[in-house]
Amino acid sequence: MQTRRTVLIGAGIAAGVGVVGYSLAPRHFAPTRALGPPPSMGEGKTVSVRFPAAERSTALPCFGDRTLPMWTFAEGAWPPIVRLNLGDRLEATLENHLTRSDEATSIHWHGIRLPVDQDGVAYLTQPPVEPGSTCRYAFTPPDTGTYFFHPHCDTVEQLGRGMVGILIIEGDETEPYDSDTLVVLRDWLVQPGANEFDPFFTVVSAGRAGTYGPLRSTNGASDPTIPLPASGDCRLRLVNVDMTRIMQISIEGAEAAIVAIDGHAVTPFALTKWLLGPAMRADVVIRTPRDGGTVRLIDSSDQPRVELARFVTAGAPRRKTEFDPAPLRRGTVPEPDLANATRLTFVLDMTEAGKAIAALAAERLPATAAGFAGVDVGALCLSRASFWTVNGRTWPEMSHESQKGASVTIPPLASLERNRSYIFEWTNNTPFSHPVHLHGFAFTVLSASKFARPVHVADTVLLLPQERVEFAFLADNPGNWMLHCHVIEHQESGMMGYIRVA
Ligand code: C2O
Ligand code: CU
């Protein structure tokens, strides 16, 4: 029995629905197999983890021989990784030891469909976790796939200093791949030789594309060499935990297919170039070359392009047939009823201050973040850093503290009726790209006017400049759910709001 979602995805690929200027016809292989049957919930054990969030002087391999004052959720390897089987319940205890910096914090489980009181948005869904106190989260993730978590409180500095973890929910494979490798991508806001990070928020970058970290990293290392089995179908879980950079991902030296987006299975399609914005994930299967071969993961978002990781193969060949990667199991996200869906429009734009920054930037500003320091932002009459709007509204003030009592003082961007289906129609009226994230749901991306993509389920969707995007979902999860750009400086300078489902 085909579900609506498999039909949509199939139609998207065959008929080019929502696909402009780019053919999704596979370049190297023709997928022959439909998604597998949905995964079954395991018997459901409880997995308990402890996250003693603290400042830790840390020497990641990419830092060379220096240590930097990172803030992390746990001691040991960065980032911490939680692996569950579908059906397992996670009990996570966050202890806030950020006493020196006196930082309140929280954990948001990005992309997980959970009860709103576990969503971890300080002030909106829970009180902030003050220094010296603890908070316990408990929930059973309903979907398989690749997820991550991060604070939702002074995110720009806390994520900037390294507070992030990976959450993987197993049970989605129809037949085992030959390996499973996590590839965590991010930049660090630190200059060569410096022993402290650069400022995480600069007014002028916040009004443009955001601040790019000069130090790139993959799994905390600079262009690491990662061993993989030879002639195998190898799963790479790409996670962009950067605050700013929209990576343009490609694979060299191997055939590659995307099999999941934001954790959710998609009928495999050839990976040629894929835009992976902040918070976005892509599960990729590559057919590795023979023993001694090399495969490169490339980001060409910038010139010159950057090699993010190098995979070297070893051992006897695992597979001899043509590349036709096993699809994952079909997800169980409830399907929106498109015929009866309510359509709501959302427009991303800039405030007058934001437009002034953007215009000034284009004419006079040097291209590096360091160059912005000399600009007299006061001359632009900025009373505060509110540069971005959603439907003409900017999130009041920079800090999440303005969410204090948000349910009373800040009205939602939209009120949704529980168990109705909605189509959100987005227009990006700014000259910058925005990865838009909705908490609490997984939505189906139906169409996009610029960057070609198949119809797929996601929790974050990228809008290129002037792009129009539609996504749909069933509003089955009651609560106040954040909706914001995941370029964190944009989020912190106004591009944020929430919807209410009741
Ligand atoms: Cu990943 Cu509101 O965030
Ligand atoms: Cu943005």
Tell me briefly what this model is:
The protein is mainly beta.
- Radius of gyration over all CA atoms, rounded: 22 Å
Helix amount: under 10%
Overall geometric form = globular
Bound molecules: CU-O-CU linkage, copper (II) ion
Q: How many helices does DSSP assign?
A: 6
Q: What fraction of the residues are assigned to beta strands by DSSP?
A: 35-45%
State the separation between the terminal residues, measured CA to CA. 32 Å
The tally of beta strands, per DSSP, is 30
Main β-sheet, spatial strand arrangement: 10-9-12-17-14-15
Give structural notes.
There is one protein chain. This protein is mostly beta strands. Helices cover 9% and strands 37% of the residues. The protein is built from six helices and 30 strands. The protein has helices at residues 4-15, 155-160, 203-206, 352-364, 406-409, 488-491; strands at residues 46-58, 68-72, 81-85, 89-96, 108-110, 134-139, 145-150, 165-170, 179-188, 215-218, 225-229, 233-240, 247-252, 255-261, 264-270, 274-276, 281-287, 294-299, 306-314, 342-350, 388-390, 414-416, 421-428, 434-438, 443-448, 456-458, 460-463, 468-474, 479-485, 496-501. The strands form six sheets. The chain has a six-stranded mixed sheet with strand order 10-9-12-17-14-15. A six-stranded mixed sheet has the order 21-20-23-28-25-26. Strands 11-19-18-13-16 form a five-stranded mixed sheet, with no helix packed on it. Copper (II) ion is lined by residues 434, 485, 487, 490, 495.
